[in-house]
Write a structure and sequence with these properties.
Helix content is 31%, strand content 17%. With 242 residues, the protein is α/β, with parallel strands linked by helices. The protein has one domain: 3-Layer(aba) Sandwich (Rossmann fold). It starts with a strand and ends in an 8-residue tail after the last strand. Bound molecules: fructose -6-phosphate. Its EC number is 3.5.99.6. Belongs to the glucosamine/galactosamine-6-phosphate isomerase family. NagB subfamily. The active site is at 67 (proton acceptor), 136 (for ring-opening step), 138 (proton acceptor), 143 (for ring-opening step).
Length: 242
């Protein structure tokens, strides 16, 4: 794992944004795996700024997101569909029909999961996957205990994850109990992975990750076996690591 230590969230975002911009410039029809949450917001801002200033085009890019809450429709303000529209898709020239997220309102969720896996396959896999990390080591919504062999599936969100995400809802009771998430197997099949972490809250997770003990009890640990992972983390997030 290549580690880039930076001073701040802004610096992390600038680095990550530039890596994605360069990828798209070099390979205009890249398949980008995208994440939501607080961590990638600055990266998306960088991509938008560059698009406005330098006209980097996303016309031929396809994006595939990690996850979506079960039960929230596309227009729900806290859905990840809405997050992506607001924070990225509506501000660059990506074609809406080339942006994919799981449908958390599908009648048959297991069919939706299969469909999502087929989609990843049809796209030819993910060229660059952007990831945040949960305080419990989750990647996507793959909570501790999820099989490393998992494909897209429905997951019960842990109380700690629901609490961590409650800041986006009016209260924790409104946070859905389930989500559809890309599986760990699909994530690690990405050709390249960009893992971002910022702030003290992530310091224990990063120190456990960098200890190198690979276990399903700490999903992100599998990333240490991937040949092309870049971790960009700020000093606060790395404060408990050697
Ligand atoms: C989001 C996702 C999650 C987050 C993680 C960290 O699509 O898959 O794994 O990356 O929960 O969230 P933040 O960035 O809000 O700390």
């Amino acid at each position: 794992m290549k580690i880039i230590k930076v001073a701040s969230y802004e610096e992390m975002s600038a680095h990550a944004g530039q890596i994605i911009i360069n990828k798209v410039k070099d390979h205009p029809s890249s398949i980008l795996g995208l994440a939501t949450g607080g961590t990638p917001l600055g990266t998306y801002r960088r991509i938008i700024e560059d698009h406005e200033r330098n006209h980097t085009s996303y016309r031929d890019v396809s994006t595939i997101n990690l996850d979506e809450y079960v039960g929230l429709n596309e227009d729900h303000p806290q859905s990840y569909h809405m997050y992506m529209k607001e924070h990225l898709f509506s501000q660059i020239d990506v074609q809406p029909q080339h942006t994919y997220l799981p449908d958390g309102t599908a009648k048959d969720l297991s069919k939706e999961c299969q469909h999502y896996d087929q989609l990843i396959e049809k796209l030819g896999g993910i060229d660059l996957q952007l990831l945040g990390i949960g305080q419990n080591g989750h990647i996507g919504f793959n909570e501790p205990g999820t099989s490393f062999e998992s494909r897209t599936h429905v997951i019960d969100l842990m109380e700690s994850t629901r609490k961590a995400n409650a800041r986006y809802f009016s209260n924790v009771n409104e946070v859905p109990h389930h989500a559809i998430t890309m599986g760990i197997r699909s994530i690690v099949e990405s050709k390249e992975i960009l893992l971002l972490a910022s702030g003290k809250k992530k310091s224990s997770a990063l120190s456990r990750l960098l200890e190198g003990n690979v276990t399903e009890e700490f999903p992100a640990s599998i990333l240490t076996r991937h040949p092309q992972v870049t971790l960009i983390a700020d000093e606060a997030a790395l404060s408990k690591s050697q």
